[in-house]
Design a protein that fits this description.
The chain is α/β, with parallel strands linked by helices and about 475 residues long. Helix content is about 40%, strand content about 15%. It has 2 domains: about 150 residues, Aspartate Aminotransferase, domain 1 (Alpha-Beta Complex); about 270 residues, Type I PLP-dependent aspartate aminotransferase-like (Major domain) (Aspartate Aminotransferase, domain 2, 3-Layer(aba) Sandwich). It has a 7-stranded mixed sheet with strand order 4-10-9-8-7-5-6, with helices on both faces. α3 packs antiparallel against α13, α4 packs parallel to α13 and α14 packs parallel to α16. It binds pyridoxal-5'-phosphate. The site of pyridoxal-5'-phosphate (PLP) has 15 residues, from α5. Its cofactor is pyridoxal 5'-phosphate. InterPro entries: Aminotrans_3, Aminotrans_3_PPA_site, PyrdxlP-dep_Trfase, PyrdxlP-dep_Trfase_major, PyrdxlP-dep_Trfase_small. Belongs to the class-III pyridoxal-phosphate-dependent aminotransferase family. Keywords: Aminotransferase, Pyridoxal phosphate, Transferase.
Length: about 475
């Protein structure tokens, strides 16, 4: 047996990783040429790698470490719970204290009559639950044919077969097929798709695609509309201000369920507890995960309104995960929510750090390769372009330039992701103003270096 530890040379760790660990969303064969960066520890907004580099994590892991790394209280909550009751299920008329306490707390935090929680191990699983729950709800009401779910192109709802089908990532759909009866409308991405329209008109047009789809498919066929309040993995697409009010009008007018996928937006990311509050909607179901435990333990779920819970609860819902309401994850999530609340982290993000970050982040539009900068609360994106006025794309395959800049960020010890040719951030909510300054300085430097490379490669020209 090989003894594997932090003290091994990086190259050996990378070789073992490439040999035995299959990475998500990666070209596996690439790891034998260029090893994965080995992250060894973290504190606050910082990561350290096996070479000793200190990295500023402007993505909060995968949008999830809202309270920052290294909070002992969460470790202790997990330790205490594991000793007392490491596992018990919630099937067959059993329950336990951590799941009761977390459910009560979520009912308190969630807006309106979202008072009931169905747990999952992740956001993807929760969205699979939502597909089945929305369809079961209408079947229970005598309308089994009301089973189409409308979603949006370039939405991200997870990676299981169901969640992936809800999502609008064509690169995922083509690998292995999709589940039936999911319909996609266009996304509100004005920068790339708005053409000559004003952002406001474009927002209305994109929202009205929902109404058109409901009328075409038939109101009696459409079960639900699902959307992220602000699209995350699609590139932090902040819709025009006109978009959500129009969607809300449509959802209120037709008899369909509104599912808000709050996996990223929830738990302070947009400056409120939930993105639904930020965009002014009252969904029937909310998907939660990520920031619920700040990523310290895997947990997800669906927060369900009174009426849906009552109808679904009227018969046996043949659905559930072994780790639904896992006591350790629930204990960790509760402690995370306590800290977010008692330390005023959500309020501080909204009133202090988000405005500061917005001002600095929008300053990046002065860089010659940056078109728009969009930010809501603590999630933002910039669009890279060779020509700002025409919002042109580069004369290279989408993502080529974004990847170059991402690599420069990596080299400059800043974790900033690219989605196509957009660069995105979603830092821990506890980030300090000094760290915001550092983030912007490193981003600027990486943009400079990236642009030099783009120019050297002859790619700094419109498509
Ligand atoms: C990450 C994400 C998911 C999937 O959550 P997992 O925990 O990765 O399964 C679903 N919806 C949104 C909006 C997400 O960002």
């Amino acid at each position: 047996m090989v003894e594997i530890s932090n003290h091994m040379p990086t190259a050996e760790l990378q070789a073992l990783d490439a040999a035995h660990h299959m990475h998500p969303f990666s070209t596996q064969s690439g790891f034998s040429k260029k090893g994965a960066r080995v992250i060894t520890r973290a504190k606050g907004t910082r990561l350290w790698d096996s070479e000793g580099a200190e990295i500023l994590d402007a993505m909060a892991g995968l949008w999830c470490v809202n309270i920052g790394y290294g909070r002992d209280e969460l470790a202790e909550a997990a330790y205490r719970q594991m000793k007392e009751l490491p596992y018990y299920n919630t099937f067959f008329q059993t329950t336990h204290v951590p799941v009761i306490a977390l459910s009560q707390r979520l009912a308190e935090l969630a807006p309106g009559d979202l008072n009931h929680v169905f747990y999952a191990g992740s956001g993807s699983e929760a969205n699979d639950t939502n597909i089945r729950m929305a369809r079961f709800y209408w079947a229970q009401k005598g309308k089994p044919e009301k089973n189409i779910i409308i979603s949006r192109k370039n939405a991200y709802h997870g990676s299981t077969l169901g969640a992936m089908s809800l999502g609008g990532m064509s690169g995922m759909h083509t690998q292995g097929g999709v589940v039936q009866n999911v319909h996609h409308i266009d996304q509100p991405n004005w920068w790339s798709e708005g053409g000559d329209m004003s952002p406001e008109d474009f927002g209305i047009e994109r929202a009205q695609q929902l109404e058109k789809a409901i009328l075409e498919l038939g109101e009696d066929r459409v079960a639900a509309f699902i959307a992220e309040p602000i699209q995350g993995a699609g590139g932090v697409i902040v819709p025009p201000d006109s978009y959500w009010p129009e969607l809300k009008r449509i959802c209120d007018q037709y008899d369909i369920l509104l599912i808000a996928d709050e996996v990223i937006c929830g738990f302070g990311r947009t400056g409120n507890w939930f993105g639904s509050e930020t965009v002014g909607i009252q969904p029937h179901i909310m998907t939660i995960a990520k920031g619920l435990s700040s990523g310290y333990a895997p947990i997800g779920g669906s927060i369900v309104c009174d009426e849906v819970a009552e109808v679904v609860g009227g018969d046996e819902f043949n659905h559930g995960y072994t780790y639904a309401g896992h006591p350790v994850s629930c204990a960790v999530a509760l402690e995370n929510l306590r800290i977010l609340d008692e330390e005023g982290i959500v309020t501080r993000a909204r009133e202090e750090i988000a405005p500061y970050l917005k001002e600095k982040f929008e300053g990046l539009t002065e860089h010659p390769m940056v078109g728009e900068a969009k930010i809501v609360g603590m999630m933002g994106s910039i669009a890279l372009t060779p020509h700002k006025e025409s919002r042109a794309a580069f004369a290279s395959e989408t993502g080529t330039v974004g990847y170059m800049v991402r690599e420069r960020c990596f080299a400059n010890n800043l974790i900033m992701r690219h989605v196509g040719d957009r660069m995105i951030i979603s830092p821990p909510l506890v980030i300090s103003k000094e760290d915001v300054d550092l983030l912007i300085a490193r981003a600027w430097q990486s943009l400079d270096e990236g642009m030099a490379q783009v120019k050297a490669d002859g790619l700094f020209k419109p498509a």
